[in-house]
Structures are given as C-alpha cells and as structure tokens.
Amino acid sequence: MEREISSGWLMFIGFRAAEDRIVAALAEAGYADITRAQARLLAGIDVDGTRLVVLADRARIPKQTALALVNGLEAAGFVERVPDASDGRARLVRLTAHGRGVLPVAIAEETRIEADWQGVLGVRRMRALRKALWELALSADPHLHSPDAAQGANAVPGER
Questions:
Q1: Burial (CB count <10 Å: 0-12, 13-18, 19+), residue 78
Q2: By C-alpha distance, which of 78, 7, 8, 26 is closest to 49?
Q3: Alpha carbon 86 to chain centroid distance?
Q4: Predicted pLDDT at 129
Q5: CB neighbours of 21 closer than 8 A, spacing ≥ 6?
Q6: By the 8 A CB rule, do 44 and 59 touch?
Q7: N or C: which end of the chain has fewer CB within 10 A?
Q8: pLDDT of residue 149
C-alpha cells in the first residue's frame, strides 16, 4: 500500500524545482561559481546586511557552516563584512556590487517560475495557493510579517 505524499513534501518538491531553476539561471548569467548552498545563504541577506547568526538561522544550518559559506562568498567577491552600526562589536554580511548583480537574475527567474505556475493553475488557483502559503508561513514563522495590501498574498504575477 502506498502512503500519500505529505503536503510538506509536496511544497518541498516545488521549492526544489524553483531553486533548481534559479541556480541554473544564475549559472547561465555567468554566476556558475555560486553553489546551491551559497545561493540559499545569499537569499537571506537583507539590503543593509545581516549578522552571520541570523543567516545561519534563516538557512537552517549551523553557524560554522554559514561561516564557511560566507568565507567562500567573500573570497569570490559576492559579500563583504562590515561593522554593525547598532553594535560596534558585531559585523554584518552585506552584498557587494558584484553580489547585488545576482539579484535581477534571480528575481527575473522567480517571476518566470510564478508565471509558469500560474499557467498550470490558472489565476484563481494561483491566488488561492499564495493565500494559503502565506497563512501557513505566518503561522510557522513569528518573525515573518504579512505583506502590505499593495503587494499582498493575493498578488499574482502580471496582475495589478
């Protein structure tokens, strides 16, 4: 007897497929030196920089692993470490100009992925999926904030 695939696993399959496409798009755009693990860490860096311990938590990896990934990204010129203005003892990991170059590539691929998924589901079901995913995300992550109405959970690519 086959066991039904869990909803969590189904979401992971979708995430993995999206991640595969984003990493491939980065490689095609000339960023082939970014590993999947490094891409996950890069995705967690805030515009003004992020502390290493926060990056590790966001990526769900040990601090030592995050440190090794940041060292590699820094050596490749994607990130830099800068003092944290809010705490002189702390340092932030921040994207360099080279690192910020990956953002338009990743964002463009994310947009294509969402459009492809909308093509499979249709506008109504895509909107419902995003709404449901936001509800689950907000219940799972106390630090996550709901998007404002203009960019809300009902936003669907190509619809404004």
A1: buried
A2: 78
A3: 25
A4: 96
A5: 109, 112, 113
A6: yes
A7: N
A8: 37
**Residue pLDDT, tens place only, 33-83:** 999 999 999 999 999 999 999 999 999 999 999 999 999 999 999 999 999
Q: Which domains does the chain have, with CATH numbers?
A: 7-121 (1.10.10.10)
Residues 6+ apart with CB under 8 A from 146: 134, 138, 152, 153
Which ranges of 29-122 does DSSP label H, i.e. alpha helix? 36-43, 52-59, 63-75, 97-100, 102-121
One-letter amino acid at 142 equals P
User: Own/partner pairs for 53-60, CB < 8 Å, 24+ apart?
Assistant: 55/93
Q: What is the pLDDT of residues 102-113, one digit of tens each?
A: 999 999 999 999
